Amino acid sequence: MRNVIVTGGSRGLGLTTARRLAANGYCVIAVARKQSPQLAVAVEEADRENSGSLHFAAFDLAQIDCIAALVKTLRKDFGPIYGLVNNAGISFDGALAMMPNSQIEQLVRLNTVSPMVLTKYVVRSMMADGGGRIVNIASITAFTGYSGLAVYAGTKASLVGFTKSLAREVGRMGVNVNSVAPGFVDTDLTQELKNEHRQQIIRRSALKRLADADDVASAVEFLLSDKAKNITGTVLTVDAGNTA
């Protein structure tokens, strides 16, 4: 069974991805600060269905200096790491001119520095084991921009550049590195939007609908699969044609 780490796996896109991968035979280690009730249920379901498995690892990814020890522990407990899905991230809305420096630093630390450092230690073990897959969760804001999300978009754009360069560094060692760039995804958060704003986004999309979390999880699953063995250094956009 292939081991895959999914960061930010306690809710949202991370949890949906973790569920999907476990259902399709992977051993998934969901990394998050706390185990959510939804993740606890998903772990129980995975145990019952016995297709793959789902585990929770408590860790604060903002603790950069402890990441090496985390990877060492996970490798000891689970064995070789086949896949890493860098999904964890945060977002603060607000104009750059008014954003506190502490928030800027927090965004860059968790959205950029943390996944890069985690990838550093995971990719070392992948190279030693003869290969693996890395999928970085970016965002269409990396290409389109969005007023009030300048720092967030900057962190996601950095992951795209990171993906392309790292793919060239580690490809010869059998490691594929790709990104998935979700657009406006149909989640609980978007349900809270004013209907006018929601309809505006739908009208702007080529398919006249929003993508959902499972669409993003499907893209991640594909990039981890043998079907994507010759895909690396690319960005797969999942946005119902919002940027078409």
How would you characterize this protein structure?
The protein has about 240 residues and is of the alpha/beta class. The protein contains 9 helices and 9 strands. α1 (about 10-25) runs parallel beside α2 and α4 runs parallel beside α6. The protein is about 50% helix and about 20% strand.
Main traits of this protein?
two-stranded parallel ribbon, 9 helices, alpha/beta, 244 residues, seven-stranded parallel beta sheet
What is the molecular shape?
A: globular
Q: How many DSSP E strands?
A: 9
Unreliable stretches (pLDDT < 50, length at least 5) are none
Average pLDDT number: 94
Compact overview of the structure:
The chain is α/β, with parallel strands linked by helices and 244 residues long. It has 9 helices and 9 strands.
What secondary-structure arrangement, pairings included, does this model have?
Blueprint: E1 3-7, H1 12-23, E2 27-32, H2 37-49, E3 53-58, H3 67-78, E4 81-86, H4 101-129, E5 132-137, H5 141-144, H6 150-170, E6 175-182, E7 185-186, H7 188-191, H8 195-204, E8 211-212, H9 213-224, E9 235-238
Parallel strand pairs: 1-2, 1-4, 2-3, 4-5, 5-6, 6-9, 7-8
